């Protein structure tokens, strides 16, 4: 049942508990108790709202920064990741495979603000060997949701 609950709330965290209980074939209290347990166990880590900032008219720049590091002896990548994710500008940090070690996402008001974070705070860290900044120019799909305008069918119905 946990996997089914997680699948539903991952797509829509605002789903009505009564509706979710009906879909799962259990009572509302069971669903509520299971959600509370998963929150306590940190299986559910938070509830987020996906916002199209362009449509909101608010300027935001998002960057994906690839970071190559030298892990510290006896601490591995975890300590380096902790130093990076403790910056308030950082939205996420992932350990990745390939040519770089981490993928870091940050948001800022301008390209300069993001670039300054990389050059002033991220690059100077002792264990950082190199960075590569990729700016998101347009979001087509985010967290499973299509963000791009869907083309309208302009055919005439017969």
UniProtKB/TrEMBL annotation:
<keyword id="KW-0805">Transcription regulation</keyword>
<dbReference type="InterPro" id="IPR036390">
    <property type="entry name" value="WH_DNA-bd_sf"/>
</dbReference>
<dbReference type="InterPro" id="IPR036388">
    <property type="entry name" value="WH-like_DNA-bd_sf"/>
</dbReference>
<protein>
    <submittedName>
        <fullName>Lrp/AsnC family transcriptional regulator</fullName>
    </submittedName>
</protein>
<dbReference type="InterPro" id="IPR019888">
    <property type="entry name" value="Tscrpt_reg_AsnC-like"/>
</dbReference>
<dbReference type="GO" id="GO:0043200">
    <property type="term" value="P:response to amino acid"/>
</dbReference>
<dbReference type="Pfam" id="PF01037">
    <property type="entry name" value="AsnC_trans_reg"/>
</dbReference>
<dbReference type="InterPro" id="IPR019887">
    <property type="entry name" value="Tscrpt_reg_AsnC/Lrp_C"/>
</dbReference>
<dbReference type="Pfam" id="PF13412">
    <property type="entry name" value="HTH_24"/>
</dbReference>
<keyword id="KW-0238">DNA-binding</keyword>
<dbReference type="GO" id="GO:0043565">
    <property type="term" value="F:sequence-specific DNA binding"/>
</dbReference>
<feature type="domain" description="HTH asnC-type">
    <location>
        <begin position="1"/>
        <end position="59"/>
    </location>
</feature>
<dbReference type="GO" id="GO:0005829">
    <property type="term" value="C:cytosol"/>
</dbReference>
<keyword id="KW-0804">Transcription</keyword>
<dbReference type="InterPro" id="IPR011008">
    <property type="entry name" value="Dimeric_a/b-barrel"/>
</dbReference>
<dbReference type="InterPro" id="IPR000485">
    <property type="entry name" value="AsnC-type_HTH_dom"/>
</dbReference>
